[in-house]
Specification:
The structure is a single chain. The protein is an alpha/beta fold. The chain folds into 2 domains: 130 residues, Rossmann fold (3-Layer(aba) Sandwich); 39 residues. The protein contains 7 helices and 8 strands, in the order βαβββαβααββααβα. The strands form 2 sheets. Strands 1, 2, 3, 4, 5 and 6 form a 6-stranded mixed sheet that branches. A two-stranded antiparallel ribbon has the order 7-8. β1, α1 and β2 form a beta-alpha-beta unit. The mean pLDDT is 92.
């Protein structure tokens, strides 16, 4: 199948996965901001990869607006976020990105990483504020912290990268059927 990968990456983790998948499939990975130069009708299979931000897949709605109408293209979406993979996390992302269910688009979640140096100032300050609030809560009453709170404090302490070609196995298995 003639494939193309369109992606929206903020800190580079989504771009890494897009390039890994492009290498695996022998196709191009193209940033979303260059989508207007691409004729999606020329492709049988179109992938979109977006980073997760506030439970939304960044760039997904913009990508969907560019999809060919009434075409027979197979569309597959993957999202890359800092959290570890979990079925609950995947279902929450599907629910928070309604176009995935409305259009019945196959969806895959991949763990990326965290790089505070690549975040914009506002997001960096917001995450620092949340961490500060959770640390105060931890000091005052550790039993009040949820598991997600604890994971947040542990994960967002320093730069990390969990991008691994092995994380693409489920997606590659799906398209190989």
């Amino acid at each position: 199948m003639n494939s193309v990968i369109i992606f929206k990456s903020n800190t580079g983790h989504t771009e890494q996965y897009a390039n890994m998948l492009a290498t695996e499939l022998g196709c191009k990975a193209i940033p979303l901001n260059q989508l207007s130069k691409v004729d999606l009708n020329a492709y049988d299979r179109i992938f979109f990869g977006g980073c997760v931000h506030a439970s939304k897949v960044a760039g997904l709605n913009a990508f969907i607006k560019h999809l060919p109408k009434n075409a027979n293209n197979q569309v597959i979406v993957f999202a890359v976020g800092a959290n570890q993979y979990s079925e609950q996390n995947t279902q929450d992302l599907i629910k928070n990105n309604m176009s995935l269910t409305e259009l019945n688009i196959p969806f895959f979640y991949l763990q990326g990483g965290f790089d505070p140096e690549k975040l914009n100032f506002a997001l960096r300050m917001m995450l620092q504020g949340v961490a500060k609030s959770l640390r105060k809560k931890l000091e005052a009453n550790p039993d009040e912290l949820t598991e997600k709170d604890r994971e947040f404090l542990e994960f967002f302490q320093e730069k990390n990268n969990h991008v691994d070609v092995k994380n693409l196995a489920e997606l590659i298995s799906y398209i190989s059927k």
